[in-house]
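Researcher: We plan to redesign the surface later, but first we want a full-length starting point. Tokens attached.
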């Protein structure tokens, strides 16, 4: 685990509200969570969004990164905001980071929501190849394929400006940051650690997610004691963006029950 980096973050909502940290997908920045901010703030939560190291406005240390590095950054972020404990909501890479935290820093976690993620996402060669391609050609080279995983074809056709917004988001990620994060996923295997997670956990899957299909969510929900699984049918990988009302409602219901 390397030294934590001070990641770029945005905090909204009442200063004394229960803290909810939103941790994003590979290739995204904190803007991917925009649809969730108002519903959470309206219910009195302090919402902290951040750019994962190597993404957005956060520093870009040289890779490879490990999941422990990303988890250490999140712990440092909690310290920076004076949050002893937080509800952690993570999607994809953010969910992997959340699971790491649940295993390694259980005392810092009020509850956990895992969206469209996996405890082991092989094959490793795919991630090594993608890291190599991005280092050689930049993130613009993978942006189109990224959006094709993030959104269903129907949504992308109906809302082309939203699809373009997300394509530009991916293309704007520094190549080294994206590639080094691929290497964290390449080596990740949390399956045997899942039973150690004691936090109250909700797992949300997208019914049409090609990147982390429902079976991945079933493994997580089966491994974490008393975890609850919900499947949002008409959602691909960036389900919180494509089906914001459903995801926000499920997240809020979980947070309210946990508090």
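Model: Full-length starting sequence:
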């Amino acid at each position: 685990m390397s030294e934590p980096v001070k990641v770029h973050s945005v905090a909204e909502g009442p200063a004394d509200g229960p803290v909810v940290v939103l941790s994003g997908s590979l290739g995204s920045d904190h803007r991917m969570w925009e649809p969730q901010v108002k519903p959470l703030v309206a219910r009195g939560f302090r919402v902290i969004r951040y750019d994962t190291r190597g993404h957005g406005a956060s520093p870009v240390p040289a890779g490879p990164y490990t999941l422990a590095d990303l988890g250490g950054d999140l712990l440092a972020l909690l310290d920076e905001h004076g949050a002893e404990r937080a509800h952690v909501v993570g999607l994809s890479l953010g969910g992997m980071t959340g699971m790491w935290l649940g295993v390694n820093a259980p005392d810092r976690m009020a509850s956990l929501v895992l969206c469209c993620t996996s405890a082991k996402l092989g094959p490793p060669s795919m991630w090594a190849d993608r890291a190599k391609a991005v280092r050689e050609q930049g993130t613009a080279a993978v942006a189109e394929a990224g959006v094709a995983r993030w959104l269903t074809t129907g949504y992308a056709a109906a809302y082309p400006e939203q699809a373009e917004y997300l394509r530009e988001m991916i293309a704007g990620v520094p190549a080294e940051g994206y590639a080094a994060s691929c290497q964290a996923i390449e080596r990740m295997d949390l399956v045997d650690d899942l039973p150690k997670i004691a936090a109250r956990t909700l797992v949300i899957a997208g019914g049409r997610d090609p990147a982390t299909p429902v079976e991945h969510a079933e493994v997580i929900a089966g491994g974490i004691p008393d975890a609850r699984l919900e499947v949002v049918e008409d959602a691909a990988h960036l389900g919180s963006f494509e089906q914001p009302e459903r995801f926000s409602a499920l997240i809020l219901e979980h947070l309210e029950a946990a508090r």
